Protein 1
Amino acid sequence: MKETDKEPFFIKEIREQPKVLANTLTKYLGPNLYLKMTRPPLDEATLRGVNQVYITACGTSYHAGMTARYIFEELSQLPTVVEPASEAGRHHLLVDDKTLAVAVSQSGRSSDTLSALNLAKARGAVTLALVNDSPSPLTEAASGYLMTLAGQVFTLSSTKAFTSQTLVLGLLAFRLAQSRGLMKEPWRQELENLGRVPEMVRYVLALEDRVALMAKALANYEQVFILARGALLPMAYEGALKLKEVAHFHAEGYSTGEFGHGPLGLVGPRSPIILIAFADEAGSSTLALARSLKARGAPLWLISEDGPKKDLALSSLADDFFPLPAVQPRLRPMVAIIPLQLLAYHLGRLRRVDVDNPGGLLGGEDWVQPDKSH
Ligand code: BG6
């Protein structure tokens, strides 16, 4: 699809992601340091002293944190807790001076996220802010900060900052692994492959017309479930949030494994299902679920890898198939979210929603207003 000046910022920002991701990699991915940052709290001594990670954020930024947890736990082998900032303090927060507390926020001024960061800080945690705007209340409050380099954001619903957040958090996990002497050779190969992420995202963006057709089909319904598992589950949540936020369309992200414990009762010809699944992780339970969905008459749309590793059993059951390029599993979330962002845009346009100002924001007390004293 050609870009034109009068197009909403929302779609322009979706299309900026290859450039944003390339800028992020150029800034942070170094030949021997996986996060070219050495000042506190990313200095070696601090990172070596960390024994758990606590990530807190709101909305889309929370979903970036959820996906990062899988990488932190595998690479840095640190227990990683991720919670919505609005929940911080509503339970006994087990955070101390050996905790790396990461507050993720595109604006750097979500008040819940600032409060959660200050709560962790009061318990002695080492605090790091990941923001797209500095100076901001979060960068002032944290011991140190990283930028997502997404450039200026003109829309309320985060897209380019989100994929950059996911990439930077992944690099932070690699950096923690490196500081803890846990880097393994295969992971170094993976880091080389990170350079392919912008090109993979560009490949998916080029399939926008197919997503526009999916949006036309979805417009005939009143709701959709988006199913995924593992590090892709936060993408199901994020895709559902985008559809609610930007298309005012009811969507629910759900764990593929959990869906058979109750929600299946809702499924019929009027409840389309978008399934994000890959041959090397789907397994027989996913295939059994897909068969059950079809037996109940549900339209089933599969987002999965195309090519030699295509899941032929699942794709033969699907009514529509969105082909993702072959990428290593750890990079799949950043690629799988792209068709869901585009789907929210096209469905929002069909439903005549102002996709740049969709009205989902609480506003007011939800944001820490710019400090006039500067
Ligand atoms: C919400 C927005 O108000 O704030 C979401 O509608 C956003 O799109 C969330 O993800 C968190 O914002 P931030 O700036 O802290 O990432």
Protein 2
Amino acid sequence: MRIGICPGSFDPVTNGHVDIFERSSCLVDKLIIATFENPVKKPLFTMAEREDLLQQAVQHIPNAEVTSFQGLLNEYAVERGVTVIIRGLRAVTDFEYEFQRALLMKHLEPDIETVFIMTKTDYSYLSSSGIRELACFGGEVDGLVPDAVARRLKEKFKDKYQV
Ligand code: ADP
């Protein structure tokens, strides 16, 4: 059985992420979608909230499993029998960071491959940080994030959306 993992902060999950999940789910038997605490980033949503929103966003993908982990991705991947790490690529700016991460992973776990899926052009401008910024000023997020995420953002910034 081929097990893949899509790791990320998913703070929150966007339609760009969901597109990557849908397309990568066809390449593996089981797709683990895992959120984790990135020590460099200060999250808007807790890990439990992010996991819950991911769960609602991937209900239509039968071989997807949503989970979270702490610590090192390479150790978690080995523990779960993962052979493929799947990451999305939007722009040249993503490349440098992803390239370094993929090479580091190869050094740590030579049996695991990192695979990149190009964003759909419609979502190439979409990022979780852009969504957080938009929502904190009461901007329209419908169509950019799954419905459950849009509802949760509007609850979180309800004073901005009531105007
Ligand atoms: P991280 O903190 O690990 O970068 P993110 O939640 O920001 O986690 O992103 C997870 C993955 O999804 C990354 O590989 C990122 O490049 C990819 N990604 C984010 N937004 C998009 C998008 N709009 N289209 C395609 N891939 C995306």
Protein 3
Amino acid sequence: MSKTIAVLPGDGIGPEIITEAVKLLEVLKQSHGLDIQLEKGLIGGAAIDATGKPLPDETLELVKKSDAVLLGAVGGAKWEPLPIAIRPEKGLLGLRAELGLFANLRPAILFPELADASTLKPAVVAGLDILIIRELTGGIYFGKPRGVRNLDNGEQQGFNTLVYDTHEIERIAKVGFESAMKRQKKLCSIDKANVLEATELWREIITKIGKNDYPEVDLTHMYVDNAAMQLVRYPKQFDVMVTNNMFGDILSDLASQLTGSIGMLPSASLDANGKGMYEPIHGSAPDIAGQNKANPLATILSVAMLLRYSLQQAELANKVENAVSKVLQNGLRTVDILQAGKTVVNTEEMGDAIIAALD
Ligand code: NAD
């Protein structure tokens, strides 16, 4: 049955990088048997300009009936003076909440050809391929009670609550184990179980699920402070990491910077049924928007994730990732990842090169 993909270009470089991703999807449809329909929608600043809202009702309807969402990026100086409630970023948060996207998958991949882009020594990071899974809709960012209150002694007190219910831990654990099964079968769960009861429960539940349902997966546990250190010391020891909302927020940014190339990193946010939103981790890059300079590879690698996680097309996902690898081996680079002796290409030429490199 044909699958529907909602395509939301957004703002800044969003439309340029999405154009390349759409070109690739059309080729996969026409010559690789991929049965899809693409439907475009408005999000972010572009939606505000057209409808007054960052997430218009028509876009919400579209994403709800779709099997997956492919998003460019949102935001820009033009919309910054607007009240927070109707800024472009609200469109993104609204999408995550409306679709129940509780699992955020952020691979940190460093193609060997780009090892020099990292601030760490090439030997430490060349060929890095880890996947960080962050719980996205629970934990301390949403827990209640929260706020700032006045105390009897005249001071103020700020407070937040770290809460996780069994079902929230179980469903993110399952995403962690399933992802590990598709990779090297190694899962490291990150917590602070020596100090925080909520993460003690996290550890208990994940251990039980591992023992009962995923005996093949090599499950380990690590405290978050150690995990931060290990990510910088010897990141290649990790395959898949799973953690709560706040720890994941911090660790996934740390891991992405190990690679040093923001224009290369994709992400996925999934619901309980495999529906997902796929987007590059970078923003709308207003400084280079409209110049045909942006690196489209993070978006193209997001397409690979979409194929793998929402359309169950692992073989096509591999083809896309291999094409990226091949193009880098052939020495083509957008300006953000340019190295001496390599050939500089623009956004469009990079998109064409990926299509030409498909098996
Ligand atoms: P940014 O990621 O847009 O840009 C940071 C730097 O990286 C810029 O110099 C930019 O030119 C460069 N860059 C980013 N993506 C690139 C690519 N594909 N190719 C080449 N260079 C690239 O972050 P920012 O400047 O902090 O934010 C700009 C706007 O994007 C803001 O409005 C912000 O709110 C928004 N934003 C949106 C998202 C999202 O849509 N998910 C995420 C982060 C920031």
Protein 4
Amino acid sequence: MKDNTKCLHSGYNPENGGPRVMPIYQSTTFKFNSTKEIGDVFDDPTKAHIYSRFTNPTVDVVEKKIADLEGGVAAMCTSSGQMASLMSILNLCNSGDSFISSASIYGGTLNLFAVTLKKLGIECIFVDVDADEKEIQAKIKPNTKAIFGETLTNPSLQVLDIEKFARVAHNNGIPLIVDNTFPTPILCKPIEYGADVVIHSTSKYMDGHALQVGGVIVDSGKFDYTNGNFPDFTEPDESYHGTVYTRDYAFAPYIIKARMQLMRDFGAYPSGNSGFLLNLGLETLAIRMEKYCSNALKAAQYFENSGKFDIVDYPGLKTNKYYELARKYMPKGQSGVISLTIKGGKEAAIKFMDGLKLASNEVHVADIRTCVLHPASATHRQLTDEQLVACGINPGLVRFSVGLEDIEDIISDIEQSLSKI
Ligand code: PLP
């Protein structure tokens, strides 16, 4: 199946006379005929649903659909994108370990990695997204367990050279984790370029309608965790009656381990109702992504030709530093987000944003409706000026997230606001 068809059909195949629309299983628990059958499911939790703190039939459909779209073998939904980032690392790193991350990542992820994981004894070593292989290799230590990067960075829109980061990871026997939130699997499938784990904030384009916060982790099923670097995968898990993840779940050891250890213990799992709403968003994801891309390119061209901006960052523009990389990794389009640095600095940026009438000023991005945000005052407020610059954010930067309104209306809104500056 191709992507539009997968968006509509993957994961759910109604039985004869069954409901056409995936039902909502809003139930904490599941009934079995005997104690023995419950015991059997505990022995092999992939056989049936036990408890909605870590599996649920409605969420399961969504997980299968996203895994299919990404070209992975299994997925696990989480209660937020932050939780997906956190669990993707905790599934590989224990206290005393380190991992490498591209410095160009979402501000919340940056804080999680640099501050909170540090308190847990896990060191994040940052590298420039444009670092060459030698520079990345130089950061690897004997305790380094993973490399992390964001395909198209929020909000600086730098493009990760996935193959380059995957080569360094694999030369060192460690997996590459890619946050693919902005492109979604419709525009880029990182597993095809060597990513081993893909994560998302589903709060963005996947949900698409600004209905609910969520996340997901996808296992490519390709990484060899028996290479000696990951004893937690190859030695019996005493907390789960001696399960050896690479032996007992060789098809997807990463995601089964994440579910049976991390989700079981932390319980940051979406409800059946949340799974249902996310599925509604996913059903139109492929068709929506096409329109976001075409609207954003036209808006970016308008911004560029207006002469009112010092920088118009959109990797679909020929003038953009990442144009060639974007054509390689996102040939169908470069998503709906544009980063702007207006002439006149922070003051002019705020004036421009406050003058918009159709586009709303809100802490969100990748919505169905056009929205804007000033990252230095909001999502990246906790970062110092040095940290802002290190992750590619100018204090005057405006993040413009193009929605699905008619492009003529989006542009006339921009025009009327610019005319007042
Ligand atoms: N990853 C990226 C690229 C994001 O943009 C965000 C949020 O903006 C996150 C992760 C965190 O996701 P959430 O807000 O769903 O926790």
